[in-house]
Amino acid sequence: MTKEDEIELFWLPIMLSYIAGDTVLPPMLGLEHAPYEALTAKTRVLRQTLNKQHQHALRQLRQQLRNMRHKEYQELMALLLEHANPDANLVEPAAAVIACGCLGNRHLWKDLGLPERPRLSRMFAWYFPQLFRANDRNMRWKRFLYKQLCEQGGDYICRAPSCDECSTYSECFGAEEH
Ligand code: SF4
Question: Ligand 1 test: best mutation among 145, 166, 173, most atoms within 8 Å of CB?
Answer without folding.
Answer: 166
